[in-house]
Structure formats: structure tokens, C-alpha cells
Design brief:
The protein is built from eleven helices and two strands; from the N terminus they run αααβαααααααβα. The longest helix has 45 residues. It has one domain. The radius of gyration is 27 Å and the shape is elongated. The N and C termini lie far apart (68 Å). With 285 residues, it is mainly alpha-helical. Strands 1-2 form a two-stranded antiparallel sheet. About 3% of the residues have low confidence. Helix content is 74%, strand content 3%.
Amino acid sequence: MQFSDLTNAIQDVWFFAWPPLVLCCIAYVISRYLHPDGTLDALRQWVARAREYGLKIEAARGLLEPYGLTKLVPVISVVAFVGFMYLLNSPMTDAVSNLPPHLSVQPGLLIAESMSEDECLLLLRTYPASRSLDDAYSLALVSAKPESKGLPQMSDSGLWEKSQSFIKFAFVVSLVTLIVSLKAGLPVGGQLAKFLLMFLLLTSLWVASVAGLLYKLEHQFYQEWWPIHLALQKDAGSRLTAPITDEERARIAAKDGQRWWRVYVLDPYLWTWAKRTIFSIQPPK
């Protein structure tokens, strides 16, 4: 095995393992804050179960030793541990990331703010079938972006997006711990006060993560624009010879007054999809 293969394997393991570890730390800190006694009791129970599991492993090792299958015991343990990490890394993270609020961006509107009228017109005429300037930029971005190769790398914006999922996970853990603590008979007023403080803290962190994500995305979008801008210059002379039409002027003016990012709770496209997909179905005659 070459040294590069070893470093790539370590990067793969770290890329897979660090999100579940962060989720476990978040769950422990919040549970310890809202329900310290219950958290300590749960940890003691898990330690006891781990010891029981260790005894079962030793028993299984003794049963498999005459058959020469003792090497399967650590393999099964590793598979079970990796499966648990996968549940935290993929389904759990995806589930909490789908919780509101959400952030949507339109990079074409951001880029259009720094573009001249000729540049906007050139982009629209390069992709004449696009419905808007943002759609034309999206098509240009897809055609100019090379295929990603190599190991998956977490960009700066990806880290900020991951932090939003962590914050939403922390809120879910806070709500579940609050319910458990109230069922355990802890004072209602004290628990609600702790939950309110935690909610305010998580809200502040989420707003800060949105600001950081927008800052990183803005730099990323501008870096992606320059290759597109360079490619458009090749046919600029021939495409800009015809005068601008009223339709093109209206499509360029449509970008004014629009913000390139927005925060929403419910997807506005959901109702449109429901009307087209569910309510438009006609019963058989």
C-alpha cells in the first residue's frame, strides 16, 4: 500500500466519522443541561449494557474457537459499530436537515447585480430558451462546471450547511429531553426556562450560521462566475450586433428589486405541486 492510499483512507474515515461524533457530543451536552440526573442514569445503563455485550462477545468467542471462527467476532462488532455511525451520519442528518426553516439562494440574481446590461443580454442570448436571467446563469454554470473528481472534500460553505443541520438536531434533542424531564416530574417552570434559554441560544447560532453561509456562498458564486464570463466573450461580437428587444429588456429588468437569498418555513412550491399532482387527478367516470 502506498502512502497516498493510506492518507486517502484516513481522510475517508474522518470524513465519515466526525459528523456522528459531533451529534453524540451535542446530544450529551444538551441532555446534561436539561436533565442531568436522567442523563447520568442513561449513561450508567449504557455502560452496564456494554459490559453485558462484552460478556456475550467472550461467550461467542469461546463457542466459535473450536471451529476457528473467532476472527468473525471483532468483524461483527466493527460492522455493528459502523452501522450505528451510518445511522447517525446519513438518515439522522438528512432528517433534521429537512426541518424548517430553510435557506434558498439564486446565484444568478447575485451575479446579475454586478453585470452590465450588455453582459446580461449576452447571457440571455447564449441561452435563448431560458425563462429568466437566473435560469440562463444556471444553464451556463452547469455547462462550465467540470465534473468533480477525487475524494469528497468539505468546502467552507459545506461546513456552514452542516452546522445548520447540527443546530436543528440540537433543537430536536432539546425538545425530546424537555418532554422526558417533564414526564420524570421535574419542575415545569425551571425546565421551561432552561428550554427557552437553549432555544434562544440555538436561534442565535442558526442566524450566525446563515450569515456565515451567505458570506461563503457569495465568494463561491463570484469565483464560479469568472470562467463563465470568460467563455461568453468568445461570441460576444456576433451576439450583441442585434439591438435589444422589449422582451429582453423586460427580462433583464426583472432582476431589480429581487433578493438572491431568502429564508422560508414552508416550501411555496409544495402547494403548486400538490395541486398539480394530487388535486388535479380526476375520478374515473
